[in-house]
Amino acid sequence: MRNADRGGRSRLSRTPPRWATVAALAYAGLCSSFMFTLVVPLQAELPRLLDASREDTSWVVTITLLVAAIATPISGRLGDLFGKKRVVLVLLALLVVGSVIAAVAGSIVGVIIGRALQGAVTGVIPLGIAIMRDVLPPERLSTAVALMSATMGVGGAVGMPLAAYLAINADWHALFWLAAGLGVLGVPMIAWCVPGDVLRSGGRLDILGAFGLAVGLSGILLFVSRGAQWGWTSPLTLTTIIGGVVVLLLWGWYQLRAKDPLLDLRVAARPAVLFTNVAAIGMGFALFSSNVAFPQLLELPVASGSGFGLDMMQAALIVMPAGIVMMILSPLSGWLERTVGPRPLFTAGTAAIVLAYVFVLLWSSEVWHIFAANLFIGVGIGFSFAAMPMIIMRSVPAHETGASNGLNALFRSVGTSSASAVMGGVLASMTIEFNGQSIPSRAAFDVCFWLAIAAGVIALVLSLLIPRSAGEQRPAFPN
Predict the structure, then answer these.
(1) How many Å is the Cα radius of gyration of the chain?
(2) Residue 242 pLDDT more than 60?
(3) Residues 6 or more apart from 433 whose CB is under 8 A from it?
(4) pTM to 2 decimal places
């Protein structure tokens, strides 16, 4: 690892103010997470708006999840090699370009291309966490990381009512112009408020490793996200999953032998890192399960026996407070991490998730039941998302922080993609007839809650398997 001189680091640590650095990075995180729910209010209308089939318009959502999962670990490695701030600026620029392409597009192809570029910006969250490790003192790191981690849920939860408002009151292109404006504002904030990079790793970008990871992950995520629509046993579906697994196995074999691998799998295989990453799948699944199930449950007609009859805006406002809770809890999460360590905090977060879904499984006859359960989910996600990066950073070398946090974000993306596919499949297959239309039955939502409970329990068990020493060691900070 090549270190900058101490005098240069000292100058960079004095300016700009650390609070400005944290605020700028958190803003970038909010922008990236907003991209996941940007088009959620439009999903039902996209076939009409884009003059395309429902199968084709589903790619407007799927492509963002795919690109986010693939780009996040790659952008983390690029940040370790060429400078994290520089890569964050590039990702924000891609957000702006993609948003403009989608805003001016006259066909579904342009919208899908724009949404793909928007998905790449997800890499700013693990990069932001890595920057915080580089520039913040240990006593401020936990709270800052908790705030940055909270943006993963806050941007989507708070952005959903805004997206719903624009979808109801403005042309749909306004959503993409809004996204472009957010990205344009983020570029100078990062440029002025984030210090230059002082820590970079040696080596080069593993192009073959990046390509192999992209191909393998595409196969896995296509199976997860499109399997229900294509048919789980169809030749296309089986080809994607088998091909993806084979490519990832070959990729792992190559990574263990490469001189400058995209990711050091020996570090990723450490128990603390491995258990945290696998548990991250469950946490991602639990988070997105509520984003899929709760809005539909709230909006379905009361007379159908399945829902509460709220409109799009009202449902978004019921879901939104979970994100606000995550933001408010970030100082408490940081204090708890410093006091008891990240492992107990992670366990508490996973336990809160399980309790939230058990609550809504037993009591979901009133709107306030959904509201209360969603608040518990906000607590659980807030605690667990704050703990995971700290566990990772206490277990990997400083020069691999970006790539390792990017891998953790990848596992969360697998969880969110899985939730979108599985929950969507359950709600589409367990239906009743109402006014000539098929809508999800009440039993379908119960199955969704059981699945979320199972994901939370698995994450809870894995959190208990994380070695205690990982929660007791302090992160290694370079001089």
Answers:
(1) 21
(2) yes
(3) none
(4) 0.77
Residue 397 lies in domain? 2-205+262-472
Question: Minimal CA–CA distance to 111: which of 175, 163, 30, 168?
Answer: 175
Closest CA to 182 of 92, 269, 60: 92
Q: Are residues 442 and 303 in the same domain?
A: yes
Q: How far apart are CA 14 and CA 1, in angstroms?
A: 23
The tokens for 79 are 């940040």
And the tokens for 477?
A: 């900070």
At 66, list the tokens. Answer: 């795919």
Read off the tokens for 321.
Answer: 């407070």
Element (H, E) at 434: strand 431-434
Share of the chain above pLDDT 70, in %: 91
3-state secondary structure of 197: coil
Claim to verify: residue 247 and residue 317 sit in the same structural domain: no
Q: Does an H or E element contain 468, and which?
A: helix 468-472
Q: How far apart are CA 33 and CA 46, in angstroms?
A: 21
Using DSSP bridges, classify how beta strands 431-434 and 437-440 pair: parallel, antiparallel or unpaired.
Answer: antiparallel
Which of 67, 68, 43 minimizes the C-alpha distance to 57?
Answer: 43
Give residue 198's pLDDT.
60
**Is residue 291 included in any domain, yes or no?**
yes
Tokens representing 455?
A: 């994901």
- Taking each helix axis from N to C terminus, what angle separates 124-135 and 367-393, rounded to the nearest 10 degrees? 50
What is the pLDDT averaged over residues 393-407? Answer: 73
Q: What torsion do the CA atoms of 147, 148, 152, 154 make, to the nearest 10 degrees? A: 40
Report helix, strand and coil shares of the chain as percent, to nearest 5: 80, 5, 15
CB burial string 75-99: b at 16+ within 10 A, e below: bbbbbbbebbbebbbbbbbbbbbbb
Could you tell me if 223 and 179 lie in one domain? no
CA nearest 146: which of 301, 299, 326?
A: 326
